[in-house]
Design a protein that fits this description.
The protein contains 9 helices and 11 strands. Helix 1 packs across helix 4, helix 7 packs parallel to helix 9 and helix 8 packs antiparallel against helix 9. The longest helix is centred in the N-terminal third of the chain and has 16 residues. It is globular and about 50 Å long.
């Protein structure tokens, strides 16, 4: 039995059908005896929609209030995924960043994680519950909702894996791997089977969208075992890339 953190990107949970598919995948892992913490993004396109709504009222919204709006996307996803898992006969419970207490600084729209209280998560896991935590968000010391910047759900997943001492952090995306460069631009680009922390950090710093740079920094600092997989499985070839 392993403790596994699974992070699902927005495309993976981009529709009710895909959320059901994710729930079935999670159910298979759970039935194999694993303890699971799931970190989903907002449904594909939802964060952009929410930000556009805010900017319809003001071209320069106050950052604190922008975070209040943006954080709701993940809240919808975690609730729907918990409902889907419950419907499959599994015990699942969803939490916002504030409910778990993912403590951040007060840099609204680009906050950094300072600490994670794992008490509630560990209690649920011990009772056989699948824990679903909203990615991309936390709270500051004053209880204000904060967000971690675009791609922040990756950071949430890796940070939770570090805090829990998870055996593995699985990052599910809709692309089939990490390449030496963008294969859409350079047809000769090679898909990598393994990648070092330093290589991944360099790719992220140069603008690669495979992982947010802060999540790479977390993985390197806390030696998180990272496994990148494609989802849905019908897209291209599943990969099993790791670092460090």
């Amino acid at each position: 039995m392993a403790l596994i953190v699974q992070k699902y990107g927005g495309t993976s949970v981009g529709s009710t059908e895909r959320i059901r598919s994710v729930a079935k995948r999670i159910a298979r892992f759970h039935r194999e005896g694993h303890q699971l913490v799931i970190v989903p993004s907002a449904m594909s396109g939802e964060t952009n929609r929410l930000l556009a709504l805010a900017k319809d009222f003001s071209p320069d919204p106050e950052p604190r209030e922008l975070d209040v709006v943006a954080a709701t996307g993940e809240q919808v996803t975690i609730g729907l995924l918990a409902i889907a898992l419950n419907h499959l006969g599994l015990k699942a419970r969803s939490y916002t960043g504030g409910q778990v207490r993912v403590l951040t600084d007060s840099a609204f729209t680009k906050a950094r994680i300072l600490e994670i209280d794992d008490t509630r998560i560990r209690k649920d896991l011990a009772e056989g519950v699948i824990v679903i935590v909203a990615g991309f968000q936390g709270v500051d010391a004053e209880g204000n909702i904060t967000t971690l910047g675009r791609g922040g759900s990756d950071t949430s997943g890796v940070a939770l894996a570090a805090a829990l001492g998870a055996d593995e952090c699985q990052i599910y995306t809709d692309v089939d791997g990490v390449y030496t460069t963008d294969p859409r631009i350079v047809p000769e680009a090679r898909r990598l089977d393994r990648i070092t922390f330093e290589e991944m950090l360099e790719l992220a710093s140069l603008g690669s969208k495979v992982l947010q740079i802060r999540s790479v920094e977390f993985a390197g600092k806390y030696k998180v075992k990272w496994n990148r997989r494609s989802f849905p499985a019908s897209r291209s070839i599943a990969t099993n890339q790791r670092f460090p």
